[in-house]
Specification:
mainly alpha; Arc Repressor Mutant, subunit A; globular; disordered C terminus
Length: 135
C-alpha cells in the first residue's frame, strides 16, 4: 500500500510507509546498475535534495522516469514536486530502521566493483561479451 503520508507536502509522490518496506522490492531496485548509481549519487549528496536532471545517466528521459519510479515505489527514495521539477532524497533513516546495515553495506561494496555503475550500465561499444570471447 502506498500513500501520500505527509499532508504538509502536497507535492509528495506516493511511497510505501517505512513499516511496509519489503526487502525483495528494495533488493530488486538496487539490482539495476542505473538505479544503484542513482542511490549512490543521492547518498553522496549527504541528505540534500537532487533534481532528476542533476543525474547524468546514459538513458532516455522516459527510462530515467521509470528508474526513479521503481526506486520510489520500493521505498528507497522520496520524491516531491517543486514547481516543474521532481526533487529526490534518499530515505536513509527509514531504510536503516527497517533493514539495519543494508544500505551501508551496499554503498560500501561499490568501490570494490571492477567497474563503476556507469560502466556496468552501459558497456563500451565494441566490447566483447563473455559468449563472444569464448568463441
Amino acid at each position: 500500500m502506498t500513500l501520500d503520508h505527509d499532508q504538509d507536502c502536497p507535492g509528495l509522490l506516493p511511497e510505501p510507509p517505512a513499516a511496509e518496506l519489503q526487502l525483495v522490492s528494495v533488493l530488486h531496485a538496487l539490482a539495476d546498475p542505473t538505479r544503484l548509481r542513482i542511490v549512490a549519487d543521492l547518498a553522496g549528496a549527504g541528505g540534500d535534495e537532487l533534481n532528476c536532471l542533476a543525474f547524468e545517466l546514459p538513458v532516455t528521459k522516459s527510462t530515467m522516469t521509470h528508474h526513479f519510479r521503481v526506486l520510489r515505489e520500493a521505498g528507497l527514495i522520496r520524491q516531491h514536486r517543486r514547481g516543474t521539477s521532481k526533487m529526490n532524497t534518499l530515505r536513509t533513516d527509514d531504510l536503516s530502521a527497517r533493514f539495519p546495515g543494508l544500505l551501508e553495506a551496499v554503498l560500501t561494496a561499490l568501490p570494490r566493483c571492477p567497474k563503476g555503475p556507469a560502466e556496468i550500465a552501459a558497456p563500451a561499444v565494441g566490447a566483447a561479451t563473455p559468449a563472444a570471447a569464448a568463441r
